[in-house]
Automatic annotation (TrEMBL), chain A:
It comes from Hyphobacterium lacteum. Signal peptide: none annotated. Part of the FGAM synthase complex composed of 1 PurL, 1 PurQ and 2 PurS subunits. Keywords: ATP-binding, Cytoplasm, Glutamine amidotransferase, Hydrolase, Ligase, Nucleotide-binding, Purine biosynthesis. This is Phosphoribosylformylglycinamidine synthase subunit PurQ. Gene3D superfamilies: 3.40.50.880. The active site is at residues 87, 195, 197. It holds the Pfam family GATase_5.
From TrEMBL, chain B:
This is Phosphoribosylformylglycinamidine synthase subunit PurL. It comes from Hyphobacterium lacteum. Gene3D superfamilies: PurM-like C-terminal domain (3.90.650.10), PurM-like, N-terminal domain (3.30.1330.10). Monomer. Part of the FGAM synthase complex composed of 1 PurL, 1 PurQ and 2 PurS subunits. It catalyses: N(2)-formyl-N(1)-(5-phospho-beta-D-ribosyl)glycinamide + L-glutamine + ATP + H2O = 2-formamido-N(1)-(5-O-phospho-beta-D-ribosyl)acetamidine + L-glutamate + ADP + phosphate + H(+).
Automatic annotation (TrEMBL), chains C, D:
It catalyses: N(2)-formyl-N(1)-(5-phospho-beta-D-ribosyl)glycinamide + L-glutamine + ATP + H2O = 2-formamido-N(1)-(5-O-phospho-beta-D-ribosyl)acetamidine + L-glutamate + ADP + phosphate + H(+). This is Phosphoribosylformylglycinamidine synthase subunit PurS. HAMAP family: PurS. It comes from Hyphobacterium lacteum. Part of the phosphoribosylformylglycinamidine synthase complex involved in the purines biosynthetic pathway. Catalyzes the ATP-dependent conversion of formylglycinamide ribonucleotide (FGAR) and glutamine to yield formylglycinamidine ribonucleotide (FGAM) and glutamate. The FGAM synthase complex is composed of three subunits. PurQ produces an ammonia molecule by converting glutamine to glutamate. PurL transfers the ammonia molecule to FGAR to form FGAM in an ATP-dependent manner. The gene is purS. Its EC number is 6.3.5.3. The lineage of its organism: Bacteria, Pseudomonadati, Pseudomonadota, Alphaproteobacteria, Maricaulales.
Length: 220, 736, 79, 79
């Protein structure tokens, strides 16, 4: 399994993402600078990490969404291979149109960092097969703009197709229908605001995030 | 007869330098200074940069020890944490800017202290913040809290360094001068530290980071001026922080530091280009020749004066080894940061600046530094207040109400509203932060099983009533907090926040706090390795309470042995290490229940502090303790309430002996810890205490869902949590 | 040349900032405020002097980056 | 009645957002962009029909809440 983590100026969870991937696969991912135009030969899995690409200026993820590497990421997704965006990575996937909707300023207007209880809504996906549906897990969140918004049609479609993978057990940011993470129609692109890579170690955020990487990458 | 250069009037001169200092400048130059030179003298000789009032006293601090690699004098202190690794840290104030523009003031404070740390080659791993606001009901408080907290979070969250802890007080004494003290901690290889010293003649001076604008011109001198009601008008352009550029700057600088290109480096902090270049030249004993036309500029036709005094943020100055410029240029271009060679070091020993082809400044560097004014300001000792012991005070009518009153009080209430806005987990090495039941924050040394423990402490009401004991206590509490999580305390940084030093009693507070702190550092082998002084925190003659904030750092050799106060189970035996005489002078109890703020604070016996602490740490390492919480504000009642709330297990305390109950519960006697011990270990630990000559008192047993005392007083954990969580949301108008 | 761009949220799109502004204004006693919407104002300094050509380019900038067509509309004034 | 408020940074105050936007536009090949500034656009729906009185009130709202007088200026249009 060959993985790549995209690094944008202002990414700050790139190291955390790499640690999680290495912990599960035993192999360090390639760290790919946003100025590149191609992914490393034979990349199976691409992760867009959290952080504040371009300082979250203009719109979160907007400027990263037009950087040079994005066409390669889109091609990877169109080839049906897995792409995961966490936090700012989720915002970027939305800006590129790989995922529907928008992520608005938190309803409280405050940045919110806490260990958020989530419910696994659909465990029959390549991202969540390591969980069981309706299982409650706790994953840290840390964001200012995680308030998921989409029109009812889109929301109904997401729910109807089982593309809502995680919901907040107690909504921290105002997200429509408590949505914390979604997948695209084909099921190979997933975005979530919570940080599974911060929950892979009992003493540092818990281990509830491990199953996500294991589902995707198979344990080492 | 005073001489003036062309275009300089007495008024202009006065607005830059006191008259005696002006004469000194004339002497040094052998002529009258022009405006650029006047500006440079004024910032270099400002309180902020020259420490002219505080230097004589700061000398008293113990600053050496077997773990100290670099003490005060560089951008930050450096200590040895074993395995060839070093921990770098420093605390700094941004008080005045934060009062004027809370968000940007606090944000740029975080940016500045981060630069002090990564300037030395360290990867920042943690931020702390020590905040003091005015009375909760003061009309400005809500807006100041909201702006400062958003600013600290906005900057720290964006650069991706976890903000893991801090402290927050509210008191009318800060109504006109809030305190925003930020601390940064970083890690580096002990043999890869970078210093301001090391420059040699003939080396290129390279500017990197943001462009220079007219930001905060004279901020350095403003930070040394007392406020009055017009300050709102007199303010210079406020500095705006750009955490996105800072993040790129961190990565780019660490990339350059991994090469062999750097001779010396300085961040551009207060008095930007001036102090950074002068400091490096002074420490390297070289001269400077800089062409200001080469400085990257954000605005049109900036004058030499403006460029030298600008406080634009996110800028660094490197002196590179000859021929290494291209390496730097490639790295900074990759990160899309401005980079320019603006001059070179010389053998002249002078600072020569050219602008538009003309020489606009020519100052001999040594005198600029060495003849900097140093004042032995007159100071007066504080008149000690009498102790206040429990038996002089009537007992509270209702103990349950008293406990709840303390737990909802501004200083003891939960600060969740604040730390929820800080990313405490980024970098995935946070072992304990604000949300966790531990007396110090703990951050894992990446890729190892070691932990760095960090705490900030100061009890201003003690310093107000007895500066010497207050100074001791600030250091002792930091040491105790590190001990309580199982760490070996290593060293401290400090941030000395005081009023106007030109007043005897204020200078006296400073001198006596330093005296007390120094004694504590000595006895506890806890040296000062960095720090910062903020004076003139005074408005219309009202000075802040003396606030010598202490930032302590310690090492946990094996993270699996770290301690907290959340793991308490029914049946655990509760014990207090240390004796209780019931000191209520300057206590939270006295303030909240008796509405009195007088009295001598609890005395600090440093020998006892050390003995008790070493015992507790030893038992933690042996694994004989399940939970440990130091006793401080609010005494046993507060510590027990916090332990009960954190563990969700009730604590049932029994008081025997003739000390009045309110003295036993609320006394703030020092050198004490509350322990929860598994019954199986109780006997052994009591014997160990006896052998070590450490007083250890069994005070009860865990169980149930309430804090109870002598079976009569009964406060449910639910009620404790409800009041404890209610203060901040109510203050901010966000209570459900 | 200068271009001034207004970026607004489309009607029906959630606007937490606008809602908060309206609420805060009411708390301050400005009861005449029925609702508030918050958008962006972006001003560009441009080289060149062909206003129409420039405007077409700015349109393009908005499509590509400055506005998110899913949730935002924009308008452009050249000056 | 509607009020449209422009809030922009005072001249000389650093505008990190504007700088980043200008950089991103250049990266997209819009090399004519010399600089960008970003401000806020706030639209209020107001009850009442006395435009002058309303405008005075909106001034007041800007002073008290909508603009930060330390770093921002504002302008108001009634419509
Ligand atoms: N109160 C203090 N205690 C110990 N060291 C101090 C104190 N105040 C200043 N220093 C030291 O003096 C030097 C200059 O301080 P400062 O101007 O705050 O540093 P910087 O210019 O990097 O912000 C630093 O090395 C700092 O550690
Ligand atoms: Mg410095």
């Amino acid at each position: 399994m060959k993985s790549a983590v995209i690094v944008f100026p202002g990414s700050n969870c790139d190291r955390d993402a790499a640690m999680a991937i290495e912990k599960v696969t035993g192999a360090a991912p390639a760290m790919v600078w946003h100025q590149e135009t191609e992914l490393p030969e034979g990349t199976d899995f691409v992760m867009l990490p959290g952080g504040f690409s371009y300082g979250d200026y203009l719109r979160c993820g907007a400027m990263a969404g037009v950087s040079h590497i994005i066409p390669a990421v889109k091609a990877h997704a169109e080839a049906g291979k897995p792409v995961l965006g966490v936090c700012n990575g989720f915002q970027i996937l939305i800006e590129t149109g790989l995922l529907p909707g928008a992520l608005m300023r938190n309803a409280s207007l405050h940045f919110v960092c806490e260990k958020a209880p989530l419910r696994v809504e659909n465990a029959n996906t390549q991202f969540t097969s390591g969980y069981s549906t309706n299982r409650e897990i706790v994953i840290p969140i840390a964001h200012h703009d995680g308030n998921y918004f989409a029109d009812d049609e889109t929301l109904n479609a997401l729910e109807g197709d089982g593309r809502v993978l995680f919901r907040y057990a107690s909504n921290p940011n105002g997200s429509a229908r408590d949505i914390a993470g979604i997948a695209n129609e084909r099921g190979n692109v997933m975005g979530m605001m919570p940080h599974p890579e911060r929950a892979i170690d009992a003493d540092h955020g818990g281990t509830d995030g491990l199953a996500l990487f294991e589902s995707l990458l198979g344990s080492a | 007869m005073t001489q003036f250069a062309e275009g300089i009037t007495q008024e202009i001169a006065d607005s830059h330098l006191p008259r005696d200092e002006y004469e000194k400048a004339v002497e040094i130059l052998g002529r009258a200074p022009n405006l650029v030179e006047l500006g440079i003298f004024s910032v270099m000789w400002s309180e902020h940069c020259s420490y002219k009032s505080s230097r004589v006293h700061l000398k008293k601090f113990p600053t050496t020890g077997e773990k100290v690699i670099q003490g005060p004098g560089e951008n930050a202190g450096v200590v040895d944490i074993g395995d060839g690794q070093a921990c770098i840290f420093k605390m700094e104030s941004h008080n005045h800017p934060s009062y004027i523009e809370p968000y940007q003031g606090a944000a740029t404070g975080v940016g500045g202290i981060l630069r002090d740390v990564f300037t030395m080659g360290a990867r920042p791993i943690a931020l702390m913040n020590a905040l003091r606001f005015g009375a909760p009901d003061h009309p400005k408080t809500r807006q100041l809290v909201s702006g400062v907290v958003a600013g600290i979070g906005g900057y720290g969250n964006c650069v991706g360094v976890p903000t893991v802890g801090g402290e927050t007080n509210f008191h009318a004494g800060y109504n006109g001068n809030i305190l925003v003290n930020a601390m940064a901690v970083g890690l580096a290889d002990a043999d890869k530290i970078f210093y301001a010293r090391g420059a040699e003649p003939g080396q290129p001076i390279v500017y990197v980071g943001s462009k220079t604008g007219r930001d905060g011109i004279h901020g350095a001198t403003m930070a040394s001026a007392e406020f009055d009601d017009e300050s709102d008008e007199k303010r210079p352009t406020v500095q705006v922080g750009d955490p996105f550029v800072e993040k790129k700057l961190i990565e780019a600088c660490l990339e350059l530091m991994a090469t062999d290109a750097i001779a010396a480096v300085q961040d551009m902090g207060a008095a930007g280009l001036t102090s950074s270049s002068v400091e490096m030249a002074g420490k390297g004993q070289v001269g400077l020749l800089m062409d200001l036309d080469k400085v990257p500029q954000r605005e049109d036709n900036m004058s030499a004066y403006e460029m030298m005094l600008s406080e634009s943020q996110e800028r660094m100055l490197f002196i590179l080894k000859p021929g290494k410029e291209q390496i730097a240029f490639d790295i900074f271009n990759k990160w899309e940061l401005d980079v320019a060679t603006i001059g070179e070091t010389t053998e002249t020993g002078r600072m020569v600046l050219t602008h538009n082809g003309e020489t606009v400044c020519d100052i001999p560097l040594d005198p600029l530094a060495e003849d900097a004014p140093m004042y032995e300001r007159p100071w007066a000792r504080a008149i000690p207040e009498p102790a206040v012991l429990a038996d002089e005070l009537s007992q509270p009518k209702d103990y349950e109400e008293a406990i709840l009153t303390l737990m909802v009080s501004p200083d003891l209430s939960s600060k969740r509203w604040i730390w929820r806005q800080y990313d405490r987990h980024v970098m995935a090495d946070t072992s304990a932060s604000s949300e966790d039941p531990a007396d110090a924050a703990i951050v894992r040394v990446h890729g190892s099983n070691k932990g760095i423990a960090i705490t900030t402490d100061c009890t201003p009401r003690y310093c107000e009533n007895h500066p010497i004991e207050g100074g001791k206590q600030a250091v002792a509490e930091a040491w105790r907090n590190l001990t309580a999580v199982g760490a070996d305390p290593i060293a401290i940084t400090d941030c000395m926040n005081f009023g106007n030093p030109e007043k005897d009693h204020i200078m006296g507070q400073f001198a006596e706090c330093v005296e007390g702190m120094s004694e504590a550092c000595e006895v506890l082998n806890f040296p000062v390795v960095s720090g910062n002084v903020s004076l003139y925190n005074e408005t219309n003659g009202f000075a802040i309470p003396p606030t010598p904030a202490v930032g302590g750092v310690g090492l946990i050799p094996d993270l699996s042995k770290r301690m907290g106060f959340g793991c308490v189970a029914a049946g655990d035996i509760l014990m207090v290490v240390g004796d209780t005489e019931g000191h209520l002078g300057a206590s939270i109890y006295l303030r909240e229940m008796e509405k009195r703020e007088d009295g001598c604070p609890p005395p600090v016996d440093l020998a006892v502090e050390k003995r008790n602490g070493d015992f507790v740490r030893g038992e933690i390492r042996k694994g004989s303790i399940k939970a440990c919480h130091d006793l401080s504000d609010g005494g046993l009642a507060a510590a027990a309430s916090e332990m009960a709330m954190a563990s969700g297990t009730g604590l049932n305390l029994v008081h025997e002996g003739d000390l009045p109950l309110h003295g036993w519960l609320f006394g703030e006697d020092q050198a004490r810890y509350l322990l929860a011990v598994d019954e199986a270990n109780a006997k052994a630990i009591r014997k160990a205490a006896k052998d070590a000559g450490v007083p250890l008192h069994v005070i009860g047993i865990a169980g149930g869902d309430a804090l109870t005392i002598n079976g009569m007083i009964d406060v449910s954990i639910a009620d404790l949590k409800a009041v404890n969580e209610s203060f901040m949301p109510t203050l901010m108008g966000e209570a459900e | 040349m200068k271009a001034r761009i207004h970026v607004y949220l489309k009607p029906g799109v959630l606007d937490p900032q606008g809602a908060a502004v309206a609420g805060a204004l009411k708390n301050l006693g400005f009861n005449e405020v029925e609702s508030a919407r918050q958008g962006k104002l972006i001003e560009l300094d441009l080289t060149g002097d062909d206003a129409d050509a420039a405007k077409a380019r700015v349109e393009d900038m908005c499509q590509k980056l400055l506005a998110n067509p899913v949730i935002e509309n924009f308008s452009i004034e050249m000056a």
